[in-house]
Amino acid sequence: MAEDQDTEDTTPLVVITDTAVDPHIVMHHEPRALQAEQYRAFRTNLLAMGRNKGSRSVVLTSGVKGDGKSVSAVNIAICLAEAPGTRVCLVDADFRAPRVAELLGLGGGKGLSELLLEEATLADVLVETRVQNLYVIRSGRPPRNPSELLASERVKNLLDSLKQQFTHILCDTPPVNPFTDAAVLGARADGVVLVVRMNATGREQAERARHVLERAGAHVIGAFLTDASTQDPDAVAEYEDDADE
DSSP secondary-structure letter at 67? Predict the structure, then answer.
């Protein structure tokens, strides 16, 4: 009597991923994952907040290094670009430790510093990404005076110009407490989102960052919580809408 044959398909599973994009960019690699849905919940609040207000420029920063602001900025940008009728520009304004191009696998090139120093035009530095409706401006060559460069009138002119082309402008900036860059740029943007890592960022550090931003004239519109437990989806994307207060 012949032995029963194992009819289970033993063909190995092959998963193809874009290794150029950092694995932490879940909106690209795992768009149906719970974490991706939490980014979408954040997007819903952001879009509702800016409804009927035209284009909006938002600075993302953190109290200290390691809170996950750059990864959050890229994921939020991709998430926004998914929404119908949106066109997003992600600006890497972190001259201290730029990561946006690396996270998206874009490589180096001219960027924000060359644009503000009038060594390049907007057309020269605006990069179309593999994500539909998402464009990036790299940080460019590290300038000698980052804070002073971001305080220049050219930044205001740039934001005004980008608002003519994009529905959302997101700017990734250095942490607040060691540097003044985020406060300087935040004062020129429509709002600032403070990225806070759960169980890592101290309350004192977060409050100090907010106070620094507000003293500079920036409008802190909410906080984005990273590393929250997946058992509490509402905790991951906490967004306080106080824009009209």
Answer: S
CA distance 48 to 76: 15
Question: How far is it, in rounded angstroms, from Cα 70 to Cα 74?
Answer: 6
**Domain span holding position 216:** 27-236
pLDDT in tens, 54-78: 568 999 999 888 888 999 999 999 9
Banded pLDDT at 28 (limits 50, 70, 90) = confident
Q: Count up the domains in the chain and report the number.
A: 1
pLDDT in tens, 30-39: 888 888 888 8
Asked if 176 and 63 touch (Cβ cutoff 8 Å), the reply is: yes
The answer to whether residues 64 and 57 touch, using CB atoms and an 8 Å cutoff, is: no
What is the CATH number for 44? 3.40.50.300
In order, the DSSP letters of 71-125 are HHHHHHHHHHHHSTT--EEEEE--SSS--HHHHHT------HHHHHTTSS-HHHH
In a domain, 245, yes or no: no
Q: What angle do CA 66, 70, 76 make, to 5 degrees?
A: 130
Q: What's the CA gap between 76 and 1, in Å, rounded?
A: 62
Q: Is residue 2 part of a domain?
A: no
Structure tokens at 25: 């960019």
pTM value is 0.83
Specify if 202 maps to a domain: yes
Q: How far apart are CA 125 and CA 113, in angstroms?
A: 10
Residue 208 inside a domain? The answer is yes
